Structures are given as structure tokens and as C-alpha cells.
Amino acid sequence: MAGLELLFHSVAAELSCAQDALVCYLHWSLISRHYRCLGAGEQPGTVEKKSEMLPAGWNADKDLYTLRYASKDDSCQLLLKGIMMDGSMILNVLDPKTNKVAALTLKVTDYVDPEHLTAFDKVFKNTDELQSEFVKHIISPFEPPKERVPAKEKPKREKSPSPPNPPDHDPLWIPPRHPHGGWQPHWSDPLGPFAVGGEDLDPFGGRRGGMISDPLRSGFPNPIIDPSAGLPNRLPPGAVPPGARFDPFGPPGAGRAGPNPDHLPPPDYDDMFM
To answer: Which domains are seen in the chain, by residue range?
Structure first.
């Protein structure tokens, strides 16, 4: 509380009641917040200058204290009135430029000991609470809003890089593509001796072998059935997996042997030379 002791001793002879000491403390609070006193009373005098001291006649009326203040840069002026009522001081503050007001009620004996008006080290009590209340309700409302300093962004935690997908992995393909051997996917051998009926029992198990006879699943070359039959161009490699149940798109195309009379002879007809 630098400066309060000097101010107190400068007016100690004028202190005659507890409210005088309280006004002295409130005056120092304003001075420490960069305000200066212009004088006593509501109307300005003919000659005024800013001062850190209490003006003459500041405590002439023990029931009504009126003091005027201005900030050092003249951006704000305050008219302070302290009205005594039932042992409490009702503070009213007005900014004449903006007509903004603030108010605070203080019980005098909560902050001033009337038995030690001349002893600086004993006259004031609960000064932290008094200072906090006065600044919060009387001084802060007239201060310009502080610019918000943007909070520092917390550094983002770097996520541990996920392991890269294997070079042959592609989630859009089932099964995944294999770079070696071209575009051809891998299929299990359809000729397993115990695979008969396995696919019918577990169609999603990847096994081969069912009860439906399919020439393409026999495992032996079949030049007769061509998957590309009926198409203008041949299917790309791997379009029809080996051993898959597949119906050609159309009738057999070019390259298939023509019909032979011995393929479907009439019933009970045994003439090989016909």
C-alpha cells in the first residue's frame, strides 16, 4: 500500500470520525489506480489542477462527502458521493460524460477502528476485502474493457503414424490384388479330393466342391465352354475364377468344333456310318 501512509499522515490532524478515515482510504485507492483529484463539491472551481492530495474542505460535511476525480489521460471523470446512513457509507459514483453510475455500501466499522484514528498501523482493518470491493464495484465499471489476448493454442499431439497398408492391399477388392503374376487373383485348388459338398455346407468358408455338377469346376481343360462366348471381345484374365460356376454370355463362338452326327444319335440306332 505504497503512498497510503504518507496520505494518512498528511490529513491525520483533520480526521475526527471513522468515516473520515474511510474516505481517506478510498481516495488513496483511486489515486493508486491513476486517478487524480480535481476538488471537492459537485461544481468545478475557477482554478483546478489534478492532485494526489485531498482538497481543502473535503470532510466539511460528515454526512455527505463529495469529491471529483479525473483519469490522468482525461478519458474518464468521476463524481464520488459518500452518504452516511445508520453507520454505513453509501457510495455513488457518476461519470458525467456517459452518465454511467456505480454504487457500493460499506459498513464503516468493518474497515475502520474508531479507537485508533491517529495510528496508521491500527486504524484500518480488512483492507484486502475493502480494496477488492471498492475496485470491483466502483473502479472497474468505468475502466475500458480489456482486449482479450488470444489464448495460446496447445500443441496438438502428434498421432503415431499408423502402419502403412501392405503394397498389395486394396480394401475395395475381395480378395486383395497381388502385384506378382499380373491382375490374376488367387483361388484355391478346385481339385481337392475332400472338397465335394464343402461349399454347399459352408458357402462363405472359401472351400470348393458342391453337389451341382459344373463342367468348369471339373478341373480338366474344357475347350467346348468358352466364358467369352457371345461377347465382342474376350474377358480380361481373372474375370472368371478357375472352377467358378459360370454360364457363358451367349452361344459358343468361333473356334468351337462343329456338330458331329455321332454326338446325339437316335435312340436304339447303331449305325456308325450314318
So the answer is: 4-142 (3.40.1000.30), 193-232 (no CATH)
